């Protein structure tokens, strides 16, 4: 017995595969934008001249990484990624990107928690460097 797929079903199947590919690309674009925005704020923290500004930008970095429902999200600080997704760490990504994002988060959290300006700026720079590697 031979089963033949109608032309309509083939077109429907192709359309579904195309839609999945477009959705996956859109998620990757959101991750890229969230990581880039987080990296920009880590860079602003690294170049700041006072601890308060460093902490503020590192909290913005953290907010971009964890998203509004994530551990460590600070609603008292702006979320520059609010229109880009739900946090870079929540996006569907590769294991390599996930590792970089987690490492950047750890650096941002450490930098935001210290009272040593030089250490906070160093951690911010390290977070920026890691985020620049996310694809």
From TrEMBL:
Keywords: Signal. Residues 1-28 form the signal peptide. This is Uncharacterized protein. It comes from Hypericibacter terrae. The lineage of its organism: Bacteria, Pseudomonadati, Pseudomonadota, Alphaproteobacteria, Rhodospirillales.
């Amino acid at each position: 017995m031979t089963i033949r797929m109608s032309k309509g079903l083939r077109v429907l199947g192709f359309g579904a595969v195309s839609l999945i590919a477009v959705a996956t690309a859109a998620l990757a674009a959101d991750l890229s934008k969230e990581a880039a925005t987080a990296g920009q704020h880590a860079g602003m923290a690294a170049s700041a001249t006072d601890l308060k500004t460093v902490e503020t930008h590192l909290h913005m970095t953290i907010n971009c990484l964890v998203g509004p429902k994530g551990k460590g999200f600070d609603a008292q600080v702006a979320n520059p990624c609010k229109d880009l997704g739900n946090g870079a760490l929540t996006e569907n990504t590769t294991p390599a990107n996930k590792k970089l994002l987690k490492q950047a988060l750890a650096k941002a959290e450490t930098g935001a928690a210290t009272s040593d300006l030089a250490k906070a700026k160093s951690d911010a720079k390290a977070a920026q460097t890691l985020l620049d590697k996310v694809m």
